[in-house]
UniProtKB/TrEMBL annotation:
HAMAP family (alphabetical): Upp_B (MF_01218_B)
Full protein name: Uracil phosphoribosyltransferase
Gene: upp
GO terms for MF: GTP binding; magnesium ion binding; uracil phosphoribosyltransferase activity
Function: Catalyzes the conversion of uracil and 5-phospho-alpha-D-ribose 1-diphosphate (PRPP) to UMP and diphosphate.
Domain annotation Phosphoribosyltransferase: ranges: 5-209
């Protein structure tokens, strides 16, 4: 597994505003969207392209376009929806799949309750988005899900990560596939409730309010 912590003044600025408990949901959503687009630039650095010929107003030349099969962006519901537009802004031709996963707050076990993904992901570059990499349980389950369907090139984009979650993903992935994790920051630790500290709270609640 490869970890990339994006180092940019705008990323640090927006992440700081996201952390502020006084940032209201509408502003939080906008910031999460903008931050995701900045992270998507790094997440898509290895996206596959192919050479094509185009004709400019002056002459013919060669250029690049995204290769087939198209990449697929997979937000983990519900919080991952807050990052979807930020990813597809840079990858408008990508397909979008959905994984509904939730963590049992008592046992911390991961339950999959929704799946809208192609049955066969062989040869597809998969871009999984989820704001928080805390224990790593949700992200590991999502990675296993796409690997079981044939994917071997997976990039995970998260706003924040905890060291415990990074270790969990690294240990779970092993050498089974090429997996990259791109984050805006790595925080100090998880508390007794498996929340990232200092973190930014529950991303889903801050994006959409309490349900």
């Amino acid at each position: 597994m490869q970890l990339h912590v994006a180092d940019h003044p705008l990323i640090a600025h927006k992440l700081t505003l996201l952390r502020d408990k006084n940032t209201p949901s509408p502003v939080f959503r906008q910031l999460a969207d903008e931050l995701t687009t900045l992270l998507a630039y790094e997440s898509t650095r290895g996206v596959r392209t192919e050479t094509i010929e185009v004709e400019t107003p002056l002459t013919k030349t060669t250029g690049s376009k995204l290769a087939d099969p198209r990449p697929i962006v997979i937000p983990i519901l519900r919080a991952g929806l807050g990052m979807l537009e930020g990813m597809t802004r840079l990858l408008p031709s990508a397909e979008v799949g959905f994984l509904g996963m939730k963590r049992d707050e008592e046992t911390l076990a991961i339950e999959t309750y929704a799946d809208r993904l192609p049955h066969d992901l062989s040869g597809r570059q998969c871009f999984i988005v989820d704001p928080m990499l805390a224990t790593g349980g949700t992200l590991v389950a999502a990675i296993n899900y796409v690997l079981d369907r044939g994917a071997r090139d997976v990039t995970c984009t998260c706003l924040l990560a905890a060291p415990e979650g990074i270790t969990a993903v690294k240990n779970a992935v092993g050498d089974r596939a090429e997996v990259k994790v791109v984050v805006a920051g790595v925080d100090d630790h998880l508390n007794e409730h498996a929340y990232i500290v200092p973190g930014l709270g529950d991303a889903g609640d801050r994006l959409y309010g309490l349900v």
